Amino acid sequence: MRVLVVEDSEPTRLLVVSRLAKEGHDVDFAENGRQGFLKATSNQYDVLISDIFMPEWDGFKFISAMKVVSPHLPIIVVSSSYAEKELRDRLHEFENIVEILPKPIDFNILFNILKTIKVQTHNAIRKMARIVCTIGPASDSPEMLGRMIVAGMDVARLNFSHGTHEQHEKTLNSIRKAEKEWGKPIAIMQDLCGPKIRTGKMPEGGIVLKKGQFITVQADPVEGNSERFSTIVPEIIPDLRLGEPVLLDDGLIELKVVTEGEREAECVVIVGGVLKSNKGMNLPVTKLSIPSVTEKDRKDLEWGLKHSVDYVALSFVRSPEEILEIKEIIYQAVKGDIKVVAKIEKQEAVEHIQDIIDVSDVIMIARGDMGVELPAVKVPRIQQEIIRMCWESNTPVITATQMLDSMTHNIRPTRAEVTDVSVAIRSGTDAVMLSGETAVGVDPLNVVRTMASIICEEEQYSTGTERRYRHFSHDLQTNPAIMAAASMIKSAATMLIDRSGKLYPQMSKWNRKVPSLLVTRSLHVARQSSMYHNIVPIIIDNNLTRDEMLLLAVSTAKEWGYLKPGDVLVVVEGGRLTQGDIPQLGAFQLVHVE
């Protein structure tokens, strides 16, 4: 943990810093409240330890200022100048004060408090929806990743449209290091770039296309000019048909095909603009013959399977057959349980959405290219409809693209972005995704904290009663009496003892309003469950009996803050798999937490 010690007494300051450093903490210090505030606002810390009586801003002023800029940052107060009761009375309004310690400091107590703060990472953000963060240059250090985990990151996305295998391996190792330090399983999603169609080379400054102008798109490489330009995917040229639109640079420029050909197609400019090198080309109505899994994707996938990623996302999906194809590739390579995410961004995918949902493990509503391929005004309705269909099919769904896009450059989101996230949560999305905001943004940690706070605020007031209980898939063998009885019990949480690792996906939104504590022996299952709404994984040792496992799981849940004495807990136990690997739901019991 990174700790800032704010203390004016040099002997005390040096003692605290040295003792914390010996315990393995990354420690910084300040000599007074003003200096502490400047450091705390220009650096990222996991906890502050502050004296009260200091020159140049005393502890009260420092803590008041920190409440404004970092209201959730834990603060431990140490003081010999005030009686403990007086201090508690004066500091009672500050919810982030975790303890008040007298001087001289009892370091055993201090170390236990720091351990508790670290353990309560699981309880720091009590949100049900999950946050997927794209990792890039702004966020790929173990230190930053650790802070993002604390702030609420559940899934780390590696975007294979950028970077080398060596860079991705370094990032993956940093994620696993931060995961181990903070004790919270993090799923890794490998996002394959797919057949992204782009323009070829253009002269410096690009070429100017004017409305009504004719221009040829050709297969053979050429530096673009006012008469013709090439594409990096020449296989698309024979697929272009008369009258079909060709959208360039995220739809800013529009062409229409007027002459078909095997090696070139002539187009007329409908909406002009400046076209530069390597800009995206979208063909919203063209039936493409190129495969969704490219040679690059296959090599990237081989890397991902070798490094045990938890999810693989397939871009530009058009049909369910493409999902089945990549699942077969994965099965033949590792015969393991790697879940496949279908990215819905093409009109063809929207047209076949139910069939794609039926064969996918997770659906991602990728609104960037979708908003180019389809009229942008249709995207909100499509988003709502896909979320509804995923609910009814019991398939997790991620809402993605430009959710807090302005925070790539700014420290606060726009009102429209906050509303966008809130609507997605209210609609029932399992997860929301951050892209450039966390990959290259000015303050990735602030972005994750902002996203988590929007989720928590919406979940606090959205009852979700119309969808409180998700439909159970026909292939989940359930006892209707168990389901009916368990659903009527007002419990603090549901605990799933899932031996097969196949039950929790079906149970993810059984009761939307309380956490589902997943008891598992598998780290891989725990990581994958991080994608699912309201699932909180608890990893238990293999050698424990069922009763020992339950006792330890309840104790862990209490330590993390999910349970307290007097709570009622519904414990649901998964039975053995039936023929065909169908998970069975066994009997449940009520546990009164002591």
TrEMBL record:
<keyword id="KW-0324">Glycolysis</keyword>
<keyword id="KW-0067">ATP-binding</keyword>
<dbReference type="InterPro" id="IPR011006">
    <property type="entry name" value="CheY-like_superfamily"/>
</dbReference>
<dbReference type="InterPro" id="IPR011037">
    <property type="entry name" value="Pyrv_Knase-like_insert_dom_sf"/>
</dbReference>
<keyword id="KW-0670">Pyruvate</keyword>
<dbReference type="Pfam" id="PF00072">
    <property type="entry name" value="Response_reg"/>
</dbReference>
<keyword id="KW-0479">Metal-binding</keyword>
<keyword id="KW-0808">Transferase</keyword>
<dbReference type="InterPro" id="IPR018209">
    <property type="entry name" value="Pyrv_Knase_AS"/>
</dbReference>
<keyword id="KW-0460">Magnesium</keyword>
<keyword id="KW-0547">Nucleotide-binding</keyword>
<dbReference type="InterPro" id="IPR040442">
    <property type="entry name" value="Pyrv_kinase-like_dom_sf"/>
</dbReference>
<dbReference type="InterPro" id="IPR015813">
    <property type="entry name" value="Pyrv/PenolPyrv_kinase-like_dom"/>
</dbReference>
<dbReference type="GO" id="GO:0005524">
    <property type="term" value="F:ATP binding"/>
</dbReference>
<feature type="modified residue" description="4-aspartylphosphate">
    <location>
        <position position="51"/>
    </location>
</feature>
<protein>
    <recommendedName>
        <fullName>Pyruvate kinase</fullName>
        <ecNumber>2.7.1.40</ecNumber>
    </recommendedName>
</protein>
<dbReference type="InterPro" id="IPR036918">
    <property type="entry name" value="Pyrv_Knase_C_sf"/>
</dbReference>
<comment type="pathway">
    <text>Carbohydrate degradation; glycolysis; pyruvate from D-glyceraldehyde 3-phosphate: step 5/5.</text>
</comment>
<dbReference type="InterPro" id="IPR015793">
    <property type="entry name" value="Pyrv_Knase_brl"/>
</dbReference>
<dbReference type="InterPro" id="IPR015806">
    <property type="entry name" value="Pyrv_Knase_insert_dom_sf"/>
</dbReference>
<dbReference type="InterPro" id="IPR015795">
    <property type="entry name" value="Pyrv_Knase_C"/>
</dbReference>
<keyword id="KW-0418">Kinase</keyword>
<dbReference type="GO" id="GO:0030955">
    <property type="term" value="F:potassium ion binding"/>
</dbReference>
<dbReference type="InterPro" id="IPR001697">
    <property type="entry name" value="Pyr_Knase"/>
</dbReference>
<comment type="similarity">
    <text>Belongs to the pyruvate kinase family.</text>
</comment>
<dbReference type="Pfam" id="PF00224">
    <property type="entry name" value="PK"/>
</dbReference>
<keyword id="KW-0597">Phosphoprotein</keyword>
<dbReference type="Pfam" id="PF02887">
    <property type="entry name" value="PK_C"/>
</dbReference>
<dbReference type="GO" id="GO:0004743">
    <property type="term" value="F:pyruvate kinase activity"/>
</dbReference>
<dbReference type="InterPro" id="IPR001789">
    <property type="entry name" value="Sig_transdc_resp-reg_receiver"/>
</dbReference>
<dbReference type="GO" id="GO:0016301">
    <property type="term" value="F:kinase activity"/>
</dbReference>
<dbReference type="GO" id="GO:0000160">
    <property type="term" value="P:phosphorelay signal transduction system"/>
</dbReference>
<feature type="domain" description="Response regulatory">
    <location>
        <begin position="2"/>
        <end position="118"/>
    </location>
</feature>
<dbReference type="GO" id="GO:0000287">
    <property type="term" value="F:magnesium ion binding"/>
</dbReference>
